Amino acid sequence: MMGKMNVSNEVLLSLFAEMVWDESIRKHRQEHLYKAIDSALADGDEASFLVLTTELKSLQY
Fold first, then answer.
1. pLDDT tens string 12-56
2. Rounded to two decimals, what is the model's pTM?
3. Range of 53's domain?
4. Count of CB atoms within 10 A of residue 12's CB?
5. Among candidates 20, 21, 33, which has minimal Cα distance to 60?
6. Element (H, E) at 54
7. In the 8-state DSSP scheme, what is residue 44?
8. Assigned domain for 14 exists
9. CA-based angle 53:27:8, to the nearest 5?
10. Number of domains in the chain
11. Is the pLDDT of residue 3 over 70?
12. CB under 8 Å to 37, separation ≥6 — which residues?
């Protein structure tokens, strides 16, 4: 019984770690996109702005 509990805890911890990692990567990409969007706006680059904002929307829930 104790062996199953340890395996279950390890699986849950692994899943939690993966969720934290995925969220961290998503937030980093989102920050990069915000900066790139600001740059595209400053440069008047409509095509880049549209591509970047579409990607940003896909990252948001």
1. 999 999 999 999 999 999 999 999 999 999 999 999 999 999 999
2. 0.76
3. 21-61
4. 10
5. 33
6. helix 46-59
7. T
8. no
9. 135
10. 1
11. no
12. 49, 52, 53, 56
